[in-house]
Design a protein that fits this description.
Chain lengths: 576, 420
């Protein structure tokens, strides 16, 4: 780690005395004033050392725009008031939900709260779904450790949870012949030192034979056959459902507003829009807001700088252009890092083609809007991987926000000033891959801590197995017919693009923790995910929800309470 | 158990109904498959009038128009499988093996010929590259129409409509009548996309402004749509920087194009015309796969239902008479650059072609022009037009009696300035 004086000198050079760095309590706190967000990020990056535990805390005043406060649901009630869970997990993304599932096997009260209207509404709901091998990571970081462990756990993780998972393999491709020697060194290092054992070096001729749709200019590449694809929100929701089936209490639309701590720094009360919770232990899995949650417990020892990434989804019709994960990497002399700038191209587990993501620093942690430049960047790059990739086949695109720290590593530790908060901060890519391994470790840590106070036993009736809504489309005709004979609603196709039946939608609504919204059903079983993007099925899904919940169709929302779809009966009213 | 029929019609909208009736008239055993609970397709929700002007010389509403077909369909006792979805079609020696899913389970039918009457779908906001947030309140015009007309619900109180396609114009009027405020219709092109009569009856009569050469570039709002950004576009249809304007509204209604639904056809290796996005057909409306016929909006996007019905009748009749053994060589009809497309796209070399119907659209507005069909340079058909416009499909009947077509024959369709 660079000395604080050196850091200050570098900052002075770049920012002309407008940014000050101080070392306090093993953190580097930056203060000052800057009007350009990219400068704020650059200043913090200047002060930061990759993977260091001495984190940069960003207290630079940004004057170039207004950073909006965290959006809080309008709901106000007392649903969680007075609860005293052993463990309170803040955040219903993949990390929080996977931890909840692991903790559910123990005799303890676990509660999970999520401020959005559903699980997986942050980065877990808007990423590329790649299960990484860690080829881009050096030994020594938490990311690297957990990506290797997590990847190996995925087959069981997904089969237990009834979530589709495939390992189609990943190619990292190079067109510049002069990169051969450095890439060979890189390859040997990753394979034998960093432990990415599945890596194989491949010449262009073999790659072309295996993957005829790849660009003809590819000279060589590195192939990993255990890179996988999964539906990240499907998996997050499956974890939440399994946790709930095993006794975890989960609350959506529940945001942490503030916390009370005692003299020793411990959290004694967590105030939400739905009442006050008094937990023994708090797990901070709040994604982009992890540092804000830490601040509420006076324990902000790292800063999250949101980094936007946009992915495009192509029609399943174009799936024949790729059956794996691939990306071509370019380098200029002296710089081998072009990773994540233009993402990759892959066949998703649902047989769409996904292109992206890009990486753009932004100050608004919740601005998931898309910009035309993102598609331009990713498509320009990925046409160099698979020339048949085409914007004309796009059916949708979306933005997720990575919760990056300036050290670019995960933060997995007990609070430094708040002893009863465990931080899962800075969980960005490959956080999805790492989730099962992080959850398993956090489980041990939490059980250890609680065991000091009382004996913690395993539940007798715990099951890691969750069965999701049956997927009739994938069944052989005889089985499908038998299912339909039992429930004729399975024979009524509502979403023609994805072939989803009314019966499956009703099953979905009856699963634990499924909010009765159009988007919740869409995320769980895919009606509206196809090429018509719900043009045909949205009114039908809304009607099924209304009937099932016994509410008026105008009460059915897209997602949040404010995301109204209909304003009630028109002048004529409904025909009876 | 495998069921059999002569002609299986997929889709129970106006095209499929007409195809079923005409195949039945020819004595074929017909089964119609419809995924919804009721026959009629999109016409069920088209409660405005103007249907049937060509066919019946009457102004009918969509439901009234389609009722004439459903009545005849039922009186003929044709079998309709409702709430039934085609999951796959395979080619077999005798024709086609069609797998269906319904409340009765999975069923398999073997049909000698197929008529694809699967209609079209609407292009979505992402398919026209609108960026921004993902709120509720962005509807395709057809979806908004479904909510308004079939469910009696108001999807907006104050909206912007993008695209001047016919459904967009119809919805501008419809929503105004329901008390919503339609701020304006924005069209990226410099000419309207919908029929002239709809511009008058739906916009002008209700003082709804039409902004040509404008498009929506961004949407705003985290929960429900709060505003859209519109901008003027240049001659390449690219937004001109500095012309952006933010308009507060709760909905964006899109009428930005229709795409024929041919995913089923593509799994059967039916060749698709890049211009129409529908199958390439001969004058019998048969595709390149013997025994598969296409009609209606699955064949090409029509602006009048009267022609949808007509193409259904042609396809249904020929599907009924389809014989597997015949030679099915075709030659292509080459359209001039001034044509957006022609349908049919090919001519059958087997025997003479008597009267056949040809549909075409020009690529832009031409005044005082002539449409010609030339065979080996010789004009075999021509018709003069004071004006042709891309939004208005033209229909002609051409007779090639006595003309021998060979594989080397060059057939050309063109629109040229009328020099006389």
């Amino acid at each position: 780690m660079a000395g604080i004086r050196r850091i200050q000198r570098r900052l002075n050079k770049k920012f002309d005395g407008r940014v000050q760095a101080v070392l306090e309590d093993d953190i580097i706190r930056l203060t000052g004033e800057l009007d350009n967000w990219d400068d704020v990020v650059a200043a913090c990056e200047t002060a930061a050392t990759k993977n260091s535990l001495v984190h940069v805390v960003n207290d630079i005043k940004f004057t170039g725009g207004e950073i909006p406060p965290m959006r809080v649901p309008s709901l106000r009630d007392n649903a969680v008031d007075g609860k005293t869970p052993d463990v309170l997990i803040i955040g219903g993304g993949i990390t929080g939900c996977a931890i909840a599932r692991e903790l559910s096997k123990w005799e303890m009260n676990v509660m999970l709260i999520e401020k959005n209207a559903d699980f997986a509404m942050g980065a877990s709901g808007a990423n590329d779904g790649e299960v990484h091998v860690g080829i881009d990571l050096k030994k020594g970081s938490l990311k690297q450790k957990y990506v290797l462990l997590g990847n190996a756990m995925y087959d069981k993780f997904c089969s237990d949870l009834d979530v589709p998972f495939r390992r189609p393999g990943q190619y990292i491709l190079f067109t510049q012949f002069w990169l051969l020697i450095p890439i060979l060194f890189f390859y040997i290092r990753r394979k034998y030192i960093d432990g990415v054992r599945s890596s194989r070096f491949m010449w262009g001729s073999k790659i072309k034979k295996e993957q005829p749709t790849f660009d003809k200019r590819i000279k060589f590449g590195i192939y990993n056959d255990n890179a996988g694809v999964v539906c990240s929100y499907g998996l997050t929701i499956a974890c939440a459902e399994n946790a709930a089936e095993n006794g975890v209490e989960a609350y959506l639309n529940t945001a942490v507003l503030s916390m009370d701590t005692n003299d020793s720094g411990n959290i004694v009360a967590v105030h939400t829009n739905r009442g006050t919770i008094k937990p023994t232990i708090v797990i901070n899995a709040a994604g982009v807001f992890a540092d804000d949650v830490a601040e509420m417990a006076h324990d902000r020892f790292y800063s999250i700088h949101p980094r936007r990434g946009t992915n495009a989804i192509q029609d399943t019709k174009s799936a024949n252009i790729i059956d794996c994960i691939a990306s071509v990497e370019y380098a200029s002399v002296g710089s081998l890092k072009s990773k994540t700038k233009g993402g990759g191209i892959m066949r998703t587990v649902d047989d769409n083609v996904l292109v992206g993501p890009d990486a753009v620093e932004c100050f608004d942690k919740e601005d998931t809007s898309t910009y035309p430049e993102s598609l331009k960047t990713t498509y320009t790059k990925q046409k160099g991987t698979v020339p048949a990739a085409s914007e004309r086949d796009i059916i949708t695109y979306f933005t997720g926000i990575r919760a990056a720290t300036f050290e670019e590593d995960f933060v997995l530790e007990w609070g430094r000033k708040c002893p009863n908060m465990f931080h899962c901060g800075g969980i960005q890519s490959p956080g999805l891959t790492a989730a099962p391994a992080i959850a398993a470790d956090v489980e041990k840590i939490i059980v250890d801590r609680l065991s000091k106070k009382r004996e913690i036993l395993q539940k007798k009736k715990w099951t890691p197995v969750r069965r999701g809504v049956p997927r009739l489309k994938e069944m052989i005709p005889a089985r499908r017919s038998a299912m339909i004979a039992r429930n004729p609603d399975y024979g009524i196709i509502v979403c023609r693009c994805e072939e989803i039946s009314k019966g499956e939608i009703i099953d979905c609504l009856e699963r634990p923790l499924c909010p009765p919204t159009v988007d919740a059903v869409k995320k769980r079983i895919r009606p509206g995910m196809g090429r018509c993007q719900g043009g045909f099925c949205q009114p039908l899904v809304a009607q099924i929800i209304a009937e099932h919940e016994n509410i008026d169709i105008s009460e059915v929302k897209k997602s949040s309470a404010e995301s109204v779809i209909l304003y009630g009966e028109n002048k004529g009213g409904a025909e009876e | 158990m495998i069921w059999t029929c002569d002609v299986m019609v997929i889709g129970g909208g106006p095209a499929g109904l007409a195809a079923s009736i005409s195949a039945d008239k020819e004595g074929a055993r017909v089964v119609l498959v419809e995924r919804e609970a009721r026959l009629g397709g999109i016409l069920k929700q088209c409660i405005h009038d103007g249907f049937g002007l060509v066919r019946y010389e009457e102004k009918l509403s969509g439901p009234e128009y389609v009722e004439r077909f459903t009545d005849e369909f039922r009186s003929r006792g044709i079998e309709a499988k409702l709430l039934t979805f085609v999951t796959s079609v395979e080619r077999i020696k005798e024709g086609f093996k069609v797998t269906l899913v319904s409340r009765d389970g999975v069923e398999v039918y073997e049909a000698k010929s197929l008529v694809l009457a699967t209609g079209c779908r609407e292009r979505t906001s992402k398919q026209v590259f609108i960026h921004g947030t993902r709120p509720s309140g962005i509807f395709t015009a057809g979806t908004a129409q479904h909510y308004t007309n079939l469910l009696g619900q108001l999807p907006t109180k104050r909206c912007v409509i993008l695209g001047s396609g016919d459904i967009g114009l119809i919805m501008a009027r419809r929503l105004t009548l329901e008390g919503a405020e339609v701020i304006g219709v924005y069209e990226i092109k410099n000419t309207p996309s919908g029929l002239t009569r709809n511009i008058h009856q739906c916009l002008n009569d209700f003082n709804i402004p039409l902004h040509l050469s404008h498009t929506v570039t961004r949407v705003f709002g985290m929960d429900r749509l709060e505003a859209v950004e519109v901008a003027e576009v240049d001659e390449h249809l690219k937004p001109i920087p500095g012309t952006e304007k933010k308009i507060e509204c709760d909905a964006l209604i899109l009428s930005v194009g229709l795409i024929p639904e041919n995913e089923l056809a593509e799994t059967l290796e039916v060749r698709i015309d890049n211009r129409t996005k529908g199958p390439i057909c001969d004058s019998n409306l048969m595709t390149n796969i013997p025994g598969i016929f296409a009609c209606g909006n699955a064949l090409h996007v029509n602006d009048l239902v009267d022609y949808v019905s007509e193409s259904g009748e042609i396809a249904g009749k020929n599907a009924a008479h389809f014989k597997r053994a015949e030679n099915k060589s075709v030659i292509e009809i080459v359209p001039s650059e001034t044509l957006l497309y022609v349908v049919p796209q090919t001519l059958n070399l087997n025997g003479y072609i008597n009267d056949f119907v040809m549909y075409f659209r020009s690529n832009r507005i031409y005044e005082n022009c002539v449409f010609r069909l030339k065979i080996d340079g010789r004009t075999v058909f021509e018709k003069r037009y004071p004006i042709v416009r891309p939004p208005e499909m033209e229909r002609v009947v051409i007779n090639l009696k006595g003309i021998n077509l060979r594989a080397t024959t060059v057939v050309r369709a063109e629109i040229v300035r009328d020099e006389e």
